[in-house]
Design a protein that fits this description.
- The chain has 105 residues and is an all-beta fold.
- It has one domain.
- 0% of the residues lie in helices and 59% in strands.
- It contains no helices and 9 strands.
- Strands 4-5-6-7 form a 4-stranded antiparallel β-sheet, with no helix packed on it. The protein has a 3-stranded antiparallel β-sheet with strand order 1-2-3, with no helix packed on it.
Amino acid sequence: MPGAQFHYVGDDEKVYVWDVAKKKRTQLLDDHAHRWGQITCLAWFDQIGHQEGVRNVLAFGSGRGLLVMYRQTRPEVCIFLKLCCIKSLMQSLESDGRALNNPCL
């Protein structure tokens, strides 16, 4: 399947992007300034809202309350560019993209 991806995170504050067809890691997303903290959740969005230009977004939340979003450069390539990093109270994302705020985490 062309363009199939696998994303995973660990306690090392990094997001790993793999190309499934090639069976190799294509990108390592990390914060060299160590602001993110532990990645606590990860979500993939084919499209955000009704805007045609905002597609293929990888979003993740961190233990330090950040929401970080990356956009895939082209659907056939597993390479991402950073969109934004927003300070929030987010700890998790539901599969339909709704944010859950959990002050107990």
